[in-house]
Amino acid sequence: MRYYFTILPFAIFSATNGASLAGKPGNKAKVCTVEASGTNLTDDAPAIRSAFSRCNHGGNVVFNASTYYVNSVLNITGLENIKIDIQGKLLWSTDIQYWLNHSLPVGYQNQSTAFVLSGNNVRINGHGTGNLDGNGDYWYQWIKKQPNTSNYPGRPHQITFNGLTNSVIKGLSFFRSQMWTMSIINSHNSILEDILVNNTGNVVSSSNTDGANTMFSSNITMKNWTVYNGDDSIAIKANSTNISILDSKFYNGLGIAIGSIGQYFGRFETIQHLRVENIQYVNTLHAFYMKTWTADQNGYPPNGGGGGIGFAEDLYLKNLTVLGLRGAAFAISQCTRFSGAPGVGNCTNSQFQIRDVGIDGMEGTSTSSRVASLQCSAEKPCTDITLENVDLKLSNGSAADSYLCGNVVDAKGWDCTGKVCEGGSATGEC
Ligand SMILES: *[C@@H]1O[C@H](CO)[C@@H](O)[C@H](O)[C@H]1NC(C)=O
Ligand SMILES: *[C@@H]1O[C@H](CO)[C@@H](O)[C@H](O)[C@H]1NC(C)=O
Ligand SMILES: *[C@@H]1O[C@H](CO)[C@@H](O)[C@H](O)[C@H]1NC(C)=O
Ligand SMILES: *[C@@H]1O[C@H](CO)[C@@H](O)[C@H](O)[C@H]1NC(C)=O
Ligand SMILES: *[C@@H]1O[C@H](CO)[C@@H](O)[C@H](O)[C@H]1NC(C)=O
Ligand SMILES: *[C@@H]1O[C@H](CO)[C@@H](O)[C@H](O)[C@H]1NC(C)=O
Ligand SMILES: *[C@@H]1O[C@H](CO)[C@@H](O)[C@H](O)[C@H]1NC(C)=O
Ligand SMILES: *[C@@H]1O[C@H](CO)[C@@H](O)[C@H](O)[C@H]1NC(C)=O
Ligand SMILES: *[C@@H]1O[C@H](CO)[C@@H](O)[C@H](O)[C@H]1NC(C)=O
Ligand SMILES: *[C@@H]1O[C@H](CO)[C@@H](O)[C@H](O)[C@H]1NC(C)=O
Ligand SMILES: *[C@@H]1O[C@H](CO)[C@@H](O)[C@H](O)[C@H]1NC(C)=O
Ligand SMILES: *[C@@H]1O[C@H](CO)[C@@H](O)[C@H](O)[C@H]1NC(C)=O
After folding, report:
1. For residue 29, what is the DSSP state?
2. For the segment 164-199, what is each residue's pLDDT rounded down to a tens digit?
3. How far is the CA of 345 from the centre of ligand 10 (A)?
4. By C-alpha distance, which of 56, 72, 196 is closest to 118?
5. What are the GO cellular component annotations (predicted)?
6. Which CATH superfamily is domain 28-419 in?
């Protein structure tokens, strides 16, 4: 690890005094360029940790156009006023047993992660070339051989922003995440823009490679994202409020998801004030779907659970363009249940309520005649569901015109055309 000092007109500062000068006006920030070992036999994580530690409080961490080999977990916390420029690649190691044993807890659903990053006023810029690469091709082949392919304990998210506030992540790409690309938890007032996620497997297709999941977070804007993946394009989970998803393109995944939620018995969780605008979908399953657990608890998270309470409300989507949707454009299933017991449980008893949800403006093509497939709880029916300015066509040119529903009250702008199927589902329809 070398130090790179910035020479100023009136001061040359060192690693020890640089931090104190960096915050002063007129002083250029201290720069810590992370040196790459150049071989995956040497772990670059210690050099990365050191750069963050030396350049915290006003400095600038630089990853130049090299490949940085990350062979051990990163837990970078307590950042304050720091600029991070990533020109090169951070490539995660292929030692699956190491990651299963060492990945860090995320703090929800027994999920875990390879990289925790937290702090205030953190500005990460990938300048369109910087990228994080999970080496996921190894994981996608491995998970297919496991008995539990969904939420395997210890399979890590590529990065977790935990307690990130007043921050900007920009111009960064994420390739072949080990599992979910990112989790955003306990984070507020931050923007992630000009983001490319490409989890398309080179050997086998990827699974459970969500673009992002938000939890216990507020005022998060995701703008100009492009996501190629094999699960939820973006998922909004427990206690997410004021989340915006703007000007983005989603390929091949399941579309924007709400949930799953209601997985923790007796726990009160909400999702409120979602805004989605100007989105293009290509070959996704849905444009928008919501999934809640039933009132019956079967097992524990991540793959079991149920019996949660709360509500999702004030979720509005505008100006959606779809190409070749594979399922209902808008789907609700309140019958998510223990993966090991698909036949057990009641699909209409969820205590989690869905209300005040709308789509204004959705056009394009679908292979499904279902505009809507809304399977709601009889105990807590879905209310105030609006669908307007919808123009979806099948490949033969005729309109997609099926609106299936169960336990929907106050439909606005549409009429139910038939009864929805009731059955266990993790992806919105049965
Ligand atoms: C990255 O920085 C290191 C250390 O300064 C230098 O040796 C290397 O040549 C740089 N690589 C690139 C691609 O800029
Ligand atoms: C190092 O790179 C080689 C070649 O790409 C790869 O086969 C090996 O699995 C990598 N090892 C680690 C620990 O990432
Ligand atoms: C992971 O843990 C297992 C079981 O404790 C152990 O056998 C294995 O050596 C560990 N592997 C690594 C790479 O830490
Ligand atoms: C990360 O480090 C912080 C600060 O030392 C610590 O409080 C936290 O428990 C660590 N997180 C994980 C997931 O290990
Ligand atoms: C939760 O994760 C831990 C560590 O990865 C694992 O040992 C445990 O079996 C997991 N629990 C469940 C219910 O999956
Ligand atoms: C939301 O976050 C942005 C920064 O991303 C900030 O400018 C704005 O003031 C925040 N809004 C509220 C209501 O806190
Ligand atoms: C959107 O993000 C992509 C990177 O994924 C970038 O190339 C493009 O310039 C961005 N578009 C705008 C309008 O900033
Ligand atoms: C995504 O990755 C796949 C597999 O490597 C590749 O074929 C494709 O060109 C990539 N797409 C983009 C937009 O990067
Ligand atoms: C989630 O939000 C609800 C209110 O909307 C609150 O009652 C609950 O305590 C929050 N849960 C956590 C773990 O913060
Ligand atoms: C709708 O979204 C598309 C991108 O998907 C954009 O080109 C168009 O300008 C948007 N229309 C309006 C009225 O914002
Ligand atoms: C896999 O799932 C089964 C139930 O479906 C469970 O009994 C087993 O403990 C799980 N194994 C792991 C490693 O999570
Ligand atoms: C399922 O729950 C609903 C709502 O509580 C109830 O009306 C119905 O009888 C239950 N069905 C069965 C098969 O228990």
Report:
1. P
2. 999 999 999 999 999 999 999 999 999 999 999 999
3. 42
4. 56
5. extracellular region
6. Single-stranded right-handed beta-helix, Pectin lyase-like (2.160.20.10)
